[in-house]
Amino acid sequence: TQLLEQSPQFLSIQEGENLTVYCNSSSVFSSLQWYRQEPGEGPVLLVTVVTGGEVKKLKRLTFQFGDARKDSSLHITAAQPGDTGLYLCAPQPPNTGNQFYFGTGTSLTVIP
Amino acid sequence: NAGVTQTPKFQVLKTGQSMTLQCAQDMNHEYMSWYRQDPGMGLRLIHYSVGAGITDQGEVPNGYNVSRSTTEDFPLRLLSAAPSQTSVYFCASSPVPGELFFGEGSRLTVL
């Protein structure tokens, strides 16, 4: 099992604010996925990053994979109430097929 | 599209009872897996399968059995339920490599 840390664990912000959540490990990963989970539902994929230093944008969400492929961040610009949910990072260790191990997640609440 | 279907959505068991959580997918994915989600623990991998007839253990396999007789179905069996198995269980399928498609979850309470 990989040692994986997501921070912060909880985040409550006002609509329109910016925020960043982090996913850190001491291990190197082949790739990393970010998921969002809403109450009562299963996680849904937001993005997959593969290359060290890679930056991907999805509307107001910006994802970055660390140069050494050990960490990642998710930045949300001008947060909206619809962004509320649990954000999970899921790194894939090398040579593990399609096994993804999830972090504990960041629970985000955006207050209107 | 049905995607990944889990049944039942809710179940209450007494300690020592056995039951099976059903998972079916209609996307012809080779890879399927079971996770449990507990507060503050994230999603933990229980068992996974890379194709019909092939299964393997994840992080927390004790107390659970799986089988994969068809591509579509991947049931999770609790042999003798314990209160520590109270959790929300998610089944996921994926093409290999690719994103995980999750079911809506099965909430299990063991008294």
Structure report:
The complex is a heterodimer of chains A (112) and B (111). Helices cover 0% and strands 52% of the residues of chain A. Chain A contains no helices and ten strands. Chain A has strands at residues 4-7, 10-14, 19-25, 31-37, 44-49, 55-58, 61-65, 71-76, 85-92, 106-111. Chain A has a five-stranded antiparallel beta sheet with strand order 1-3-8-7-6, with no helix packed on it. The radius of gyration of chain A is 13 Å and the shape is globular. The model of chain A has no long low-confidence stretch (mean pLDDT 92). Chain B is mainly β. Chain B has strands at residues 4-7, 10-13, 19-25, 31-38, 42-51, 54-57, 64-66, 76-78, 87-94, 101-102, 106-110. In chain B, the strands form two sheets. In chain B, strands 2, 4, 5, 6, 9, 10 and 11 form a seven-stranded mixed beta sheet that branches. The A-B interface holds A 1, 6, 9, 31, 33, 35, 40-45, 48, 88, 90, 97-105 and B 4, 31, 33, 35, 40-45, 48, 50, 58-59, 90, 92, 94, 96-100, 102-105.
Mean pLDDT of chain A: 92
Helical amount of chain A: under 10%
Give the overall form of chain A: globular
Strand tally of chain B, please?
11
Keywords:
heterodimer, A: 112 residues, mainly beta, 5-stranded antiparallel beta sheet, 5-stranded mixed beta sheet, 10 strands, B: mainly beta, 7-stranded mixed beta sheet, 4-stranded antiparallel beta sheet, 11 strands
